Amino acid sequence: DLAAGEHGAVELRLSGSQLGSLNAQARVDADNDYLVGNNSANVLIGLQSAVDLGLAFSMQPGTLYVGDLVEFTLDVSSLRSQPVVGGTLTLFLGGIPIESIAAGAHGCVIEQFDSRMTCQLADVPSGTTTRIVVRARPVWPNFNFVSASVNVVNDGDFTNNHRSLEVQIRAERQVITTASLEYLRAVIGVEYEVTHTLTTAGRLPSTDVRFLMDAPWTGVILSMTPGTGTCSTPPPQVPTECAVGGLAPGDVATV
Length: 255
Known about the structure:
Blueprint: E1 20-27, E2 40-47, E3 53-60, E4 64-65, E5 70-78, E6 88-92, E7 98-102, E8 107-111, E9 116-120, E10 129-136, E11 142-151, E12 162-170, E13 175-179, E14 196-200, E15 206-213, E16 230-231, E17 240-247, E18 252-254
């Protein structure tokens, strides 16, 4: 029994079993309580995970050529109050073959044409970071998007689970061509001049560089003048070829 003006309290302890929210409702009753409008109360409880698995992803070197050894570093962190148990990591290198893995206590395997890795992570204590280092060697030049992701049940923050990098793999010998005009609205009977710039982007010299220009179907190439080398003078509708010669790394030639 409660005397007039007296207060009573009941302490209730709850433990959540899954993420989300729940509504806790309490109700009181008494034999001589005739005002029942204030006999119940609700508390909305949000259950937040105490586990958060985060990922950082980087590579060295930043400039990469075919045949170079590249090192990908994956730092996996347990960012909340509870340890991470049963986490996984996936790495996809988009065709760059993996040569070796330094995974420590984690169990990692290479699959799918040697460019994909999956790991069963060992337990990661709260507030700590563990590192996995993957070494790979590209075999052809291209642009690659490499990605890595981590996953664990009841992860409290999915925004730090995925990372990606854009990787440009350069050829050791490479010549890039650009034109002074990307678009030309030509008038019949008027002569126009377009300069093509050849730049070596590789780390080794490019030898026997040639520049070919297809004859336009509705026009005529009047002349081609290289900054260095010589150009042929073919019949109409035959591609014109200029022998530029050798270009050292960083050299620029024009036609």
